[in-house]
Amino acid sequence: MARAVQVHQTDTPPPVPAAVDAFLKQECSELDKIMAELEARRDADAARAEKLEAQKCEAQRRREERRTASLEAQQAPYKRLQDFTPSADMPAPLRACYAPRRLKVKPTAPPPVADLMNLDALRPQRGKGADTEGAGVWAQLLGELARHALTVRPDLYRRADGSLPPQMVLHLPNELMAAQVDKDVSTLRRWTPILEALGYIDARPHYTTMTTRDGQRIPVIDGTLYAIRLQPGHKAKLTYQDLNAQYRNLDEDRQAGRTAWKVVQRAEQLAEWEAAKAENANGVPDAEKNMRGSTAHPMKAQYLKDQLKAWAVTPGQVQDPLFADPRIFSTEELEEAVKTVQDVIYLLPTVAESDANKRAALVGILGTALAHALEDDHSQRWYCKAIWNAWNAEVEGRGGLQVLAAQLARLDVDRHEWGSLKRPAALLNARLRAA
User: Fold this and answer.
1) In sequence order, what DSSP letters do the residues of 139-161 get, joined into one string?
2) DSSP-assigned letters across all residues of 76-93
3) Is the dihedral of CA 320, 324, 327, 331 positive or negative?
4) Which distant-in-sequence residues (6+ apart) come within 8 Å of 135 by Cβ?
5) Sign of the CA dihedral 210, 213, 216, 221?
6) Residues 120/122/126/130 CA torsion (nearest 10 deg)
7) Which distant-in-sequence residues (6+ apart) come within 8 Å of 350 by Cβ?
8) Is 372 left (phi over 0), alpha (psi -120 to 50) or beta?
9) Whole-angstrom Cα distance, residue 146 to residue 75?
């Protein structure tokens, strides 16, 4: 009769049971905890990464400071000034002006030999040596060698504060020194107790071992140790450590021809060539050749002095001699002869003396030899440029070739001590700028 009235109801979810509701709430709570732990872990990782980055930056800063301090210590002794810390309320541009600085102090030079001893008392009053300097000429040679070694290796001989040590110990060959002062070895032996009595030197033969032909090891003398006074009032004295140290590998030096006898023989060859050249050119009259006070063989004297300076820095280190004077050998012969850094050092003075038409070829040969010796062939053009710059400085009166020779000698010593150099040109450039 009457139709059923259709009631339209809205779609509503069925009621959730109480147990399910509690379970969902528990799951949500656990998810919140997991999210909180993940966020905390992420924050901790970020803080740890930031801390590690800060530690890395601090380590790099300290390493850079140590490297800079090491380079400065090798280049020249210095004093550190106390760092000034500006206040926090100071403006930033003004704070930047107060960066920590270091004041380089010029190292104290050794006093002249005349201030360390009375040279006039060493002059013979009678006999063959009358009116000569006597043992004083040898004392001045020892002082010059000590100054050279102190200039080339200040990090080895000077104290940490840059002050002058009271003495230096050098390993030297008596044969070369006797030839340099135009005397024999027995004369140096007679002069030794005279200088020792004045406290200027303390000399002892140095013993090492060498291998004979039948393979036996025998003790031999490889040179003489000299403790040389550098400060007034100090008495030179050798220590047990000085005598016990080893300065040469005599077997290798003999095999390579790095002996004092070889150097003296080559110096005599230089003197013969120079005398023959002077005689042919009639450059020196016969009446003046043997005059007292005249230098009959300046090339021989300069060669011996260069050998002694090289030996004073590194015992047993000598250059092969005649090879390289461009006034004697052709470009092809010179190119074959120049092989080591010491060869280049020996030839640097000839850059200023060579003919203008041959100077460019000589510089090219020296630069190429330097690049090969330092295993830095890609920097060959830079080495040539460095030699040209040194020659220009020499022309201007600034001693550029001498500075370059000193830095090359120092670089060669460091190369042998450290084993290898990754960027020798960069290190040489930095030292030349500082010098």
Assistant:
1) HHHHHHHHHHHHHH-HHHHS-TT
2) --EEEPPPP---TTS-HH
3) positive
4) 122, 191, 194, 195
5) negative
6) -70
7) 324, 325, 326, 327, 362
8) alpha
9) 18
404-415 tens-digit pLDDT: 988 888 888 887
Give the pairing of strands 217-229 and 167-172.
antiparallel
The phi-psi region of residue 205 (left if phi > 0; otherwise alpha if psi is between -120 and 50; otherwise beta) is beta
SS3 330: coil
Instruction: Give the chain's radius of gyration (CA, Å).
Output: 37
CA distances from 164 to 143, 168, 255, 336 (A): 14, 10, 38, 42
Burial of 344 (0-12, 13-18, 19+ CB in 10 A): buried
Alpha-carbon distance 428 to 31, whole Å?
A: 65
State the first-to-last Cα distance of the chain, in angstroms, to the nearest integer.
124
Highest mean pLDDT among 18-32, 146-160, 217-231, 338-352: 217-231
**Helix/strand/coil for 104:** strand
C-alpha 346 chain-centroid distance: 17
pLDDT in tens, 191-241: 999 999 999 999 999 999 998 888 889 999 999 999 999 988 899 999 999
What pLDDT digit, counting tens, does each position of 153-171 carry? 776 777 766 678 889 899 9
CA angle 51, 52, 54 (to 5 degrees): 65
SS3 280: helix
Strand order in the sheet with 167-172: 167-172, 217-229, 201-211
Write the DSSP symbol of residue 259: S
Q: What is the pTM of this model?
A: 0.52
CA torsion, ordered 351, 354, 355, 358, to nearest 10 deg: -60
Name beta bridge partners: 275.
none
